[in-house]
Every structure is written in C-alpha cells, then in structure tokens.
Amino acid sequence: MSTPRPPIDVAPEDNPTNQPMPDLIVLNRDYIAAGFRSATPQPQDLDLVVEIPDTSLAFDLTVKAALYARAGIAEYWVLDVPGRRLIVHRDPQSGQYGALTAYNEQEGVAPLGAPGSILQVQGIFPN
Question: Distance of CA 65 to CAs 33, 54, 60, 80, 89, Å?
C-alpha cells in the first residue's frame, strides 16, 4: 500500500493553478523543527525536489523546472531512467535555473543541503 504524495506550494502567481506532487521532497531542518507548521510545504521549506518521470521527461525538464525555479526552489533533480543519468538544476533566477548539470553513471553528486553526502549515480540504477 502506498501513501499519497503531498502537494507542495509554488510561486504565488502559479499556486492557484499548480500544486505539483513531486516524487520525493527533502524538507529543511527549520521546517521539521517547527513541527510541520503547514500541511502544504512552501518553497522555503524544501531543500530538494526530485522527479522520477516514466513518460514525462520532457515536461519535467521544461514546464516543471520553470515552475520550481519561479518558486525559488534551490535544487531540483530529475532522474532520466532511460538515459541512466541524473539531471541537477540549481541556482534559480528569474524563472529558470542558472546551473544545469547531467551526471552519468560514473559520477556522483552531493545535494546542496548535505554537501558531504555524495550520491553515486550508478547506485540508482539496477545492473
């Protein structure tokens, strides 16, 4: 049995029509320490948002990336399963991410919120 994913709030101009439900979110310590002060996490409550698209890779890399960038979400990861790579978006500015890096199976990346914790991309995919 799976639990439903909670929606997250985005930028005020997008919020009336968009409350995305990412596949994974990492909440920051302030939000957790405050005892989950709201039912719907706000952009400032998120350290990382992750999407694992099965058929919506192009949508997640364009439309959702812009939505998350406009909200000021500092880090957004998209797992490209067919391409066996992790695409990392960082540095949101003016509705788009200023830094976009694709990591292949031979590389690793640390989230901004945990710089000492390196995720090896090859460990994500089955052999």
Answer: 28, 16, 6, 14, 8
